Amino acid sequence: MKNMRKLFSICLVLALLAGVFTMPALANTSDTSPQTALDKFEALDENVYTPATYRLAKMEYDKVKGLVENQNATQDEINEAITALNKRIASLRVANGSESLWKTYEDYFEMGNIYSGSGNLDSGNTRGLLTSSHFNILTAENNMKPESLSSGNAGQKGTFNIYKGSNHASDQLVREAQESGKKVHGHVLVWHSQTPTWVNGGTRGNYTRAQARENMEHYIKTVVQHFDTNYPGVVTTWDVVNEAFIDELPSVPNDANWKDYLREGDQSGWYKAYSNGMVEGEDPSDFIYDAFVFARKYTDAKLFYNDFNMYEDGKSKMAAMMVKELNERYKNEYPNDSRQLIEGVGMQSHNYIMDTPPSKVENGILNLLSAGVDLMITELDLFAWYPWNAEPTGSSTGYRDLRDRGIEHIIGATGTEEQRNYWINRGITNGSEIEVIQAEVFAEYLRLYKNYAASIDRVTFWGLNDSQSWRRGHNPLLWNSDFSPKDAFYAVSDPEGYLGVDPIDVKPIPASKVAEIILDYNNLKPAYKNGKKGGNLISEVAREMGPKASFNNEPRSIKKGEKELSNPAYRKAVFNFLESHPALEERILIMPPDTFFIDGKK
């Protein structure tokens, strides 16, 4: 009995001690009291902050308020909700919206958008007002593609829908642009798709090389001269050839030849016709060279090659190889022309939040710039679901803005379980969270483009609002269905402000941190957390890199006057080093831009 009393006394003391140490955690201090947190949110002005970040804070506010009013709520639940609310309040972004995107970026590049039909520049409607205010160069979404400008079957003499005095939709575009002082980018002259078969016979035809070449010259001459003659100085650039390479080309061997990766006769009527009737020394790929030579012959506009997935290392390398080879050929054959034949490459940029990080885009930019030409970002939008057809909205549920999507509305319709539940598997529960992620990627893109502005002529967004996009279910643009701005608009308006980083000055971080940064960007860290055979690969690689300050003798940063700028060549060298590490072969996928450096405000 004595021992029992002693044991009881010990337990009582322990219980009292436990109470002493646990009670403060339950106490409501000024930082943790529900009312303090609620008051802090209620004092905010909604109009000051970006819509998605404010909505997310409001969700946590509602949760705290509901728990406080719920007699069954535990203190732990309340404390957790207060912490979440304070984090959301700390994460609010100021809504620094631009009154005119093209004026904001006029020292960097032109800002463009699409034109879909009459009224797109009419400031009397919301779409027209936004287009007129924010963009100074336009691209026809469809109305300047070959099948729109001309018609006719294989074996027939083609007819044109444009002529002196015509009022085709393309005429309306160029005329309205001329009247409003805007420029037009011509899209597109030679393409395997949306082309009348009278020109090249199509993939089922039997045109000879000579027939297709003659028709190509006739088509290009008719089209470019129509716009140059009737609307002089408005159409300043052309996509001469579009999407000549195969769709997916993530990597290529070191001895790759660009001609081996073109769309062949089963996909391209141009390739098929140019394969029919060749003589020694000729190649089916010659249609690309001929198209540019004809365009150079009949217009003074700047000439571009345009393609998608240019963030892929293989595709951008092959495009650069093609451009260099054809420019050298032209220089030899036309030595008196001081201009390059292909003067630039368009990066279409129909990108995905989850697999097109800025580092991949930067790698593509570096590959293409090696050809010695300029660039354009030609069709920028940023898809929210993976893969391209895994849209969570369809005919049964209808379109939804990101702001209206709950957890049940962010599940993909097709694909693997991982693809359909991509966001849910990563702890995302609503569309507002995705809207912030999308905005951050847009901000990083624009920050990257500004870094290379000396070589980028323009950035064109492929549409204005999500519901009118060609990929509407992916919510890929800057405005909601009612043309109210998304967080993406504010991110593009002020990328540094949205990210909370300094726009110019950068401070190098130790090389030993680079491995962790890259793996974090790759979203591979979960696979490495437990290590491989008991080891921690992040630590292993970091130790191997040690305190190295340079790779391939490249400095981490470049001094330009008093400014310290990040060095792309250094980042590329580090990327190559990590990619070749035995533990990380084929696992290092991307090269995060500027994250080898930490900005003063980050």
TrEMBL record:
Keyword Glycosyltransferase among UniProt keywords: no
EC code: 3.2.1.8
Gene3D superfamilies listed in its UniProt record: AF1782-like, Glycosidases
TM region positions: none
Signal recorded as keyword: yes
Reaction(s) catalysed (UniProt annotation): Endohydrolysis of (1->4)-beta-D-xylosidic linkages in xylans
Pathway stated in the Swiss-Prot or TrEMBL entry: Glycan degradation; xylan degradation
Top enzyme class: hydrolase
Cleavable signal peptide: 1-27
Highest taxon in the source lineage: Bacteria
Chain ranges of the GH10 domain: 95-495
Keyword tags: Carbohydrate metabolism, Glycosidase, Hydrolase, Polysaccharide degradation, Signal, Xylan degradation
Family: Belongs to the glycosyl hydrolase 10 (cellulase F) family.
Name this polypeptide is given: Beta-xylanase
Top-level taxonomy: Bacteria, Bacillati, Bacillota, Bacilli, Bacillales
